[in-house]
Write a structure and sequence with these properties.
alpha+beta; 95 residues; globular; Alpha-Beta Plaits; 4-stranded antiparallel sheet; 4 strands
């Protein structure tokens, strides 16, 4: 099953490089990537070759993440920051 991960990166140089390095160290390939940004707020969505190793990399970096099934209505190529925020709010409130 394909899993998309949503992560928020720090707004500073090297944040994306640290993420990519952590994945590469675990032999994880980035199969798809979508970046959504508004000013300094944004999200990065990734599809990777190994969901388990991706979770391990995020945990090692102390990087909070969310997982999405792309067949459940969250199409990464058509999302905005508002969509990501709405999805997080829905998950938090149980809607």
């Amino acid at each position: 099953m394909t899993v998309w991960f949503t992560v928020q990166l720090d707004d500073r140089p090297g944040a994306l490089a640290r993420l990519a390095t952590a994945l590469a160290e675990r032999k994880v390939n980035i199969a798809g990537i979508v970046g959504i940004a508004e000013d300094t707020d944004g999200a990065l969505m990734l599809e990777t070759s190994d969901a388990t190793a991706t979770r391990e990399a995020f945990d090692a970096l102390g990087l909070p993440f969310e997982e999405h099934d792309p067949l459940a209505g969250m199409e990464p190529g058509r999302m905005s920051v508002t969509d990501v925020r709405r999805d997080r709010a829905d998950r938090t409130t149980g809607v």
